[in-house]
Amino acid sequence: MNWKDKNVLITGVGGFAGSYLAKELISKESNVYGLIRRRADGTIAKNIIDRGINGELGLIEGDLTDITSLADALDHSEPDYIFHLAAQSFVERSFHNSQETQNINCMGTANLLETLRVKDLDSKIVFAGSSEEYGLVLSSQQQYENAKKEYGTIFPEPEDIPEVPIKETNPLRPMSPYAVSKVYGDYLMRNYYHSYGVDTVVSRAFNHEGAGRGIMFVTSVVTNQIMKLKFGEIDRIVIGNLNALRDWSHVKDIVQGYMLLAEKGHGGEVYNQGSMRTNSVLSYILLGLEEAGWNVNNIETLNGNKNIQNPNEIDDSPIFGIKFPKTKVDQLILEGELEYNIEDKGIKVDTDQEDVIIEFNPDRFRPAEVPILLADTQKIQNLGAKSDYSLNDIIKDQLNYFLNKGNRTS
User: Fold this and answer.
1) Domains in the chain and their CATH numbers?
2) What is the pLDDT of residues 117-128, one digit of tens each?
3) CA within 20 to 30 Å of 85's CA: 186, 257, 350, 384, which one?
4) Cα–Cα dist 239/349, whole Å
């Protein structure tokens, strides 16, 4: 598709993915407009500065909770395409302030759709849903039994186990207020397609990372601390749940997927976006240490109960019917042979330089955790989507970002 001179409105353009999307569309010579909230200090969002696109797009002040400002934004931009990325997207924050998350994500999406309907615009809208909508995905019978014991009930009950890789038809069991808000937006988008003919497509993107990812997200928590450790600013890495397995993509791959859905996505449909691999938070740390210059020999818990030699050894044997690169610790966690808990206190990483301590912080464990996310992306692949970046590529980009002391933060 030729994006030249197409009018594009991006809500959340000052966010992580929104700024990358804007940069790519600008490079395609689109007329890009971005909805931004007024800042008290009058400054431009750091992501826009970091992407080098300030002055290259039309910034429109507005707020998803103010339907009048949305009407003004649509009048100003006259969009052929809308990418609705704006949201309160931090899962942990949604636990502490659920109402804020619902106001922005649910009512904001409703306001945008209703404005489109009333104005009778024929803009095509791509909605940024989330893999978090799937929530409690069951990968083994043992995990199912443990979940039943912990939560008391599971709805809907699984028809088959394992439920991975995750297809668009998987049951939705959201595990956070943020995830619930995305389910709302997902269904509302499709309802407006069927009820009012609004041309909507839903993307359920799995975790996407890269340079400039918000510091509250786990991959940036990890890579920020690794670079601070390298420069002697801290003496250990502090983290929450290491067992969580995530399907991590590079944000640039996801941006290409958004644009592909705008071009070829079928109205009223849902498409997963992801890498079709899953790796643990622990692997993200250990691979990050190696990319930053430490050679990892073995790891053991601080109480000495669990010891793994060569934890970063790559295994690409099939699991859940697909092959993808994973570390030895990933494989052990996936097979249910390894799990870390708060009682382990932390992990000592034996390297060729010095021991690196990974300390567990109980405050960083979520009230309800999503154990595994692994996308089945065949549907969007059939449209032409592909993944160009490896997990190590993502980690390197994030580490390089935090080489700049000004980007590191406490």
Assistant:
1) 7-214+248-277+372-389 (3.40.50.720)
2) 999 999 999 999
3) 384
4) 14
